[in-house]
Amino acid sequence: MVSGRPRGRNGAGAGTQAFCSGGDQSVRGRGGYVGEDAVPRLNVLDLQIQIRRLPKPVVAMVAGYAVGGGHILHMVCDLTIAADNAVFGQTGPKVGSFDAGYGSTHMAHLVGEVVPLAELETETLVWCREMLRNSPTALRVLKSALNAAEDGQAGIQELGGNATMLFYQTEEGNEGRQAYMDKRPPDFSKFTRLP
Fold first, then answer.
1. CATH of 137-182, one of 1.20.5.170, 1.25.40.10, 1.10.12.10, 3.20.20.150
2. What are the GO BP annotations of this UniProt entry (predicted)?
């Protein structure tokens, strides 16, 4: 799992020493990170998927070290804002670990897309508030569209699910359901077929 450090205010990591230093090697056992149930897992993979599927942009505010799994964590976010003291790197091979998933596939794609800002929290909060003033549906669909190519079939499924959700909110989408409930044939002729 990622570092168990408490979050600071506004979602930033607590303190300025490290954003996340990756998996705690003292709890890594044979097969993964061992919880109280003694079962080894790689729960961070679920966290990465949740970040990718969250229907609004996720911003990593990095102060200090973002290494190993912490480096991958910031890469799966939609935007990284880096403080002047941010340090990025991969440490997996040094501790007998690696990430053949997002950690490998994203790194080459994302190099150069880390945004340095001196006033980390103030500037980021202003930017995030501006971003969240935009249409939540547009943000949701745009994010899933941007992720679709990299996430393969799962990404396309996420984008398709968002399109279905939008369709269900239309009169046309409800005609079929209502016709079924009314035990009548649907009348889709009243809807324009756009080119």
1. 1.10.12.10
2. menaquinone biosynthetic process
Q: What is the mean pLDDT of the chain?
A: 80
DSSP string, the chain: ----PPB-GGGPBSSSSEEE--S-TTSEETTEEE-TT--EE-THHHHHHHHHH-SS--EEEE-SEEETHHHHHHHHSSEEEE-TT-EEE--GGGGT---SSHHHHHHHHHTT--EE-SSHHHHHHHHHHHHHTS-HHHHHHHHHHHHHHHHHHHHHHHHHHHHHHHHHTSHHHHHHHHHHHHTS---GGGS----
Architecture of domain 2-133: Alpha-Beta Complex (3.90)
pLDDT at residue 5, as a whole number: 39
pLDDT in tens, 50-79: 999 999 999 999 999 999 899 999 999 999
